[in-house]
Amino acid sequence: MLTVDLKQLKNNVRPAVDYLRSRLDEPIEVKGSRVWLMRTNARVAKLLLQKFLHQLHLEGYRILVIHSGLIEVHTPERERRRTIRTAVGAKPSAWETIPDLWYLTPPTDHPPAQAKQERDEARDERTLNNKEFASGSTSLKQGWKHHQVR
Question: Which uninterrupted H or E stretch holds 62?
Answer without folding.
Answer: strand 62-67
